[in-house]
Design goal:
This protein is 55% helix and 11% strand. The chain is an alpha/beta fold.
Length: 213
């Protein structure tokens, strides 16, 4: 009886040790997996923050659209321009293009650039402004959605590689253009008269611009 008990005890001990080793292996593999997942998550978050920062960084910053160096654009292969209306070409409450805008559009056209208006504003606003310009124009664009930018390029028969976008807002014009790899130009807003929501967004823009420009 004593011998049988001793043999049984040793067997149980070996089984217990085997179970503990198995549990240790399982725990080690799970810990390794969790560490891997956490590391990957951190790396992905860092990459996402980096990507977002790059998408909110314009390729060029100008005080006004009239500072645009067309020679530089041509040298970079740019042949088409997507442009915003409100606070880019005119103040948001200016209903029709002034002489400076008309001259700019004519000069760009004479230099071989194709132009398309891309605005988040209403159909009435865009059509009224575009009467004297007769440019391809898209209203209610929902920038920074890619769809409207793609539609603008289709209207101009251009590609992301040869298209620039000019606008006064970081989270619509620049972000939308950068999402498709366009050459993005940010201009200072013409007027500080804006909708309340836009004023709130401007505060966020200033924070981002301090870090990016």
């Amino acid at each position: 009886m004593g011998i049988g008990f001793e043999v049984s005890g040793r067997s149980d001990s070996r089984i217990a040790c085997s179970i503990l080793r198995s549990i240790g292996i399982i725990l080690e593999s799970r810990i390794s997996y969790l560490v891997s997942v956490c590391t990957s998550h951190v790396q992905n978050n860092v990459q996402l923050r980096s990507d977002m920062k790059n998408r909110l960084k314009p390729d060029l910053f100008l005080n006004t659209v009239y500072e645009l160096d067309t020679g530089m654009l041509k040298a970079g292969g740019i042949r088409a321009i997507i442009v915003d209306i409100d606070n880019t070409l005119v103040s948001w409450d200016t209903k029709v293009p002034d002489e400076k805008v008309i001259e700019l559009v004519c000069r760009l056209g004479a230099e071989g650039f194709k132009i398309c208006i891309l605005s988040n504003n209403t159909k009435k606003r865009v059509e009224e402004f575009n009467k004297g310009l007769n440019l391809p124009a898209i209203h209610k664009a929902v920038k920074p959605s890619k769809r409207a930018f793609k539609r603008a390029m289709k209207l101009m028969e251009s590609t992301a590689e040869n298209t620039a976008v000019i606008g006064d807002q970081l989270f619509t014009d620049v972000l939308g253009g950068n999402r498709l790899g366009l050459f993005t130009v940010l201009v200072s807003p013409i007027s500080d008269k804006e909708f309340i929501w836009t004023r709130i967004v401007r505060m966020l823009e200033r924070i981002v611009l301090k870090r990016n420009i």
